[in-house]
Amino acid sequence: MILQKTLFGHTNAITDIIISPCNKFIVTSGVDGLIIIWNLKNGVEVARMTEHATSQINNMKFVETFLEQIDDKQSEDPKER
Q1: Residue 38 bridge partners (DSSP)
Q2: Domain ranges of the chain
Q3: Residues 24, 7 contacting (CB under 8 angstroms)
Q4: Is the alpha carbon torsion for 46, 50, 56, 57 positive or negative?
Q5: Cα–Cα distance for residue pair 35/7, rounded to 1 Å
Q6: What per-residue string of b and e applies to 18-44 under the rule 16 or more CB within 10 Å gives b?
Q7: Are the C-beta atoms of residues 33 and 39 closer than 8 Å to each other?
Q8: 32-81 per-position pLDDT tens digit
Q9: Is this model's pTM higher than 0.85 or not?
Q10: Minimal CA–CA distance to 32: which of 9, 49, 55, 51?
Q11: Rounded-to-integer distance, Cα 30 and Cα 8, Å
């Protein structure tokens, strides 16, 4: 595998990376307590969750309904595609 893009957003080490079942998103979590959702195609940050910013996140799982909302929001904004 060849590195194609560096994603900037976390302030500390990454603890988990998952790819959505639809292959449209990458989700990263880290020691900084952030969860960031990225557009897999262009590397643009599409959502950031800071509710857990006081603790490290180690394991994530996709919930399809949330991803459908993110996907719908991206479809409305042509700049994000």
Answers
A1: 26, 45
A2: 14-80
A3: no
A4: negative
A5: 13
A6: eebeeebbbbbbbebbbbbbbbbeeee
A7: no
A8: 888 999 999 999 999 998 876 667 777 777 766 655 555 555 555 544 44
A9: no
A10: 55
A11: 12
Q: How far apart are CA 6 and CA 73, in angstroms?
A: 24
List the structure tokens of 55.
Answer: 């603790």
Tokens of 65: 């309904």
- Enter the tokens of residue 27: 């989700």
Q: Which amino acid is at 10?
A: H
If DSSP codes are grouped into helix, strand and coil, which group holds residue 75? helix
Rounded CA gap, 80 and 73, in Å? 9
List the beta strands (DSSP E) in 1-81. 14-19, 25-30, 35-39, 45-49
CATH annotation of 14-80: 2.40.10
